[in-house]
Amino acid sequence: xxxxxQEIDAIVIDSFEELTYKNKCIxxxxxxxxxxxxxxNTPTLIKSLSEGVYNKVKGKFSDDAYRKKVLSSLEAKNVTxxxxxxxxxxxxxxxxxxxxxVLYCKGNLTxxxxxxxxxxxxxxxxxNILRECSKISGELSDKFTIVTGMADGAxxxxxxxxxxxxxxxxxxxxxxxxxxxxxxEKLIQKVEKSGLLISEYPPEIPPxxxxxxxxxxxxxxxxxxxxxxxxxxxxxxxxTANYAEEFGKQVMAFPYSMGVTYGxxxxxxxxxxxxxxxxxxxxxxxxxxxxxxxxxxxxxxxDEQIALAAIREAGEAFAPExxxxxxxxxxxxxxVLSSLExKGLIIRLGGNRYAAL
Length: 357
Prior knowledge:
Layout: H1 5-14, H2 21-29, H3 42-49, H4 51-61, H5 64-76, E1 80-83, H6 91-94, E2 102-107, E3 116-120, H7 127-140, E4 145-148, H8 154-162, E5 168-171, H9 185-194, E6 196-199, H10 211-222, E7 225-228, H11 236-246, E8 250-253, H12 264-272, E9 275-276, H13 280-286, H14 302-314, E10 316-318, H15 319-325, H16 334-342, E11 346-350, E12 353-356
Parallel strand pairs: 3-4, 3-7, 4-5, 5-6, 7-8, 8-9
Antiparallel strand pairs: 1-2, 2-6, 10-12, 11-12
């Protein structure tokens, strides 16, 4: 990937862990081209950053060896950077508060310019809701690129529903050197291969709790609308919905019966004016699009049939228990379980547990 001087400056500035987002923006906003004239703006920068931090940053920024090291490290990890100054930076993200300085990407970059629809929800979501989430995600991927996070539950269901189309963007809240939770590693690899992974954090940045709600502004910013399939009273999905409302995007939600705790947030959104969604047709009509249901294919090989029967019999089953039914080791049945997930017949519940849909 060839970057302009302005793009490289932004990438280098973003590599400074000693700077907050606010201070990185101060540096970027001081110049039409970042650091075009450091000395001229020294008083302003020192006041904002402290003299010690300023001198450290200035030295690293001006060091050609450091600049080359940053770029070569990203290239070695197969990471492409789309900066705020890049031609293919999404226009919708430029309009939100605290736009990411750099989007670190792996996968199909053309998806950044496609029409997007976000699907989010709770890690703790009932299997029947996960099935509907996966189905709707698959149906919508005919017209939209699906945007979501990377967690068990609703995120995983949304990914599995759209992965076959390749029109899926997963926004991580940490750098590419990590997989969180650890069981998401296989799913991360699948999205990288078929769709697009993005993060606003350099690869070496680990998962931190405060980064997840901050990440949600990107999910809302990319999408024309956000569908919340499950949410408690305090849920990250509600944070995403709030961002969407703030950005002038449509908010939609599944309805829930009284007393269902993981649906209280959805009912709250509907009371506030969110579109009630019971099926894909509700979404297609909201956008004035024609809806043609897709036919589900349920062809199973012998291993898939045995595994599915074992899960249905148990209600919920751990991977080692399913492997025992197949006379295989747990790692040997990963392709079987992945195939059943893609076909919408099972869902991963977390903790290496699976349930039939």
